[in-house]
Specification:
By secondary structure, the chain is an alpha/beta fold. 25% of the residues lie in helices and 25% in strands. The longest helix is centred in the N-terminal third of the chain and has 14 residues. The protein binds flavin-adenine dinucleotide.
Length: 313
């Protein structure tokens, strides 16, 4: 019997859409039972959201004061403690899941599997390697629990309309003392989150300064879009790291991606492989970004972007 436990990602108030994407991945197993576990200090609202995801049988809640803010070292023993009944434990391939799931795998004594993009069988999966330039088929040993992250850009969120039961469980786990929360520093932004934005405007090194990056923000605001960037722009200090798209940044799948002054290095492209329409603005008509762009504008971004923004405003 295939039984999948999905670890919910949330901010204490709302469920992250990555959870419903993990459910879509789990639903690729014929007849699987799918449960969600929500860990936090007080998770009633999040559990209610999780229970509405179609295809979910039960939502397990584990409420402890130590679970907020979420630390992988603290959550992992609790997830491992309730994983015994399951053949698979899934988390999203977001910063949350990439941190947590290897901890869980280590506690269960198994190798984690990263970035499932396609289920071939209960113990056979496809995942990208070499910055998404090749797809590898991975076989997991059927005698062990499969602990894996799900590549969220490969899955649509499962629909709502479900009515799973919600059960509070006490995870019999010793909470480690070696890791504790000190503080968190995040960029504050009212703009759409990169992971969920349907439109993203991204700028590259060509912007040449933090001030010039204002052009990208203006266009993004005119479109109601999120803001992305290349690693070169982040390294140069034009934008904060959480905007970086690509192999070592975020993997995203917006319906519209506008790449401005972005060359199209493979490490960047791997972050937008699942984007819908890709628009590129670059002054070099030979730039690799044009090989994957659906619409290409050859020209100077400092001329094109303000004109575009004015036309939209
Ligand atoms: C292990 C590893 C991981 C990496 N991970 C990532 C990652 O996650 N994300 C990522 O983005 N990169 C990543 N990189 C870096 C990547 O290889 C590239 O160096 C980077 O993406 C280049 O950024 P860019 O396109 O902004 O800059 P450039 O390559 O310098 O390109 C700038 C582009 O702007 C164009 N341009 C210049 N002026 C104008 C103008 N006035 N108008 C219009 N166009 C103009 C140029 O023609 C050029 O195409 C990684 C590299 C390594 C080795």
């Amino acid at each position: 019997m295939t039984k999948v436990l999905v670890v919910a990602e949330h901010d204490g108030a709302n469920l992250n859409p990555s959870t419903a994407k993990c459910v879509s991945c789990a639903a690729q197993f014929d007849g699987a039972e799918i449960d969600i576990v929500v860990l936090g200090a007080s998770v009633a609202a999040v559990a209610t959201e999780a229970a509405a995801i179609s295809g979910v049988g039960r939502v397990l809640t584990i409420e402890r004061a130590e679970n907020t803010p979420a630390l992988a070292a603290i959550l992992a023993p609790q997830v491992a403690a309730v994983a015994g009944d399951y053949s698979h434990v899934f988390g999203p391939s977001t910063a949350f899941g990439k941190d947590l799931m290897p901890h869980v795998a280590a506690l269960l004594g198994v190798n984690p599997i990263s970035d499932i993009m396609q289920v071939m069988g209960t113990h056979q999966y496809q995942r990208p390697i070499y910055a998404g330039n090749a797809i590898i088929t991975v076989n997991a040993p059927p005698e062990h629990t499969v602990v894996a992250t799900v590549r969220t850009a490969s899955y649509q969120a499962a629909a709502g309309g479900g009515a799973a039961s919600i059960e509070n469980v006490a995870a019999d786990a010793e909470i480690p003392q070696h890791t504790r929360f000190i503080s968190v520093q995040t960029g504050q932004s009212d703009r759409p989150d990169l992971q969920t934005a349907s439109k993203v405007v991204a700028g590259g090194r060509a912007l040449a300064s933090e001030e010039n990056f204002g052009l990208i923000y203006k266009l993004a605001d005119a479109l109601g879009a999120g803001v992305g960037s290349t690693r070169a722009a982040v390294d140069a200090g034009y934008v904060p790291p959480e905007t970086q798209v690509g192999q070592t940044g975020q993997i995203i799948a917006p319906a519209l991606y506008i790449a401005i002054g972005v060359s199209g290095a493979i490490q960047h492209i791997t972050g937008i492989k699942d984007a819908g329409t890709i628009v590129a603005i670059n002054k070099d008509e030979e730039a690799p970004i044009f090989e994957i762009a659906d619409i290409g504008l050859v020209g100077d971004l400092f001329k094109i972007v303000p004109e575009l923004t004015d036309a939209l405003s």
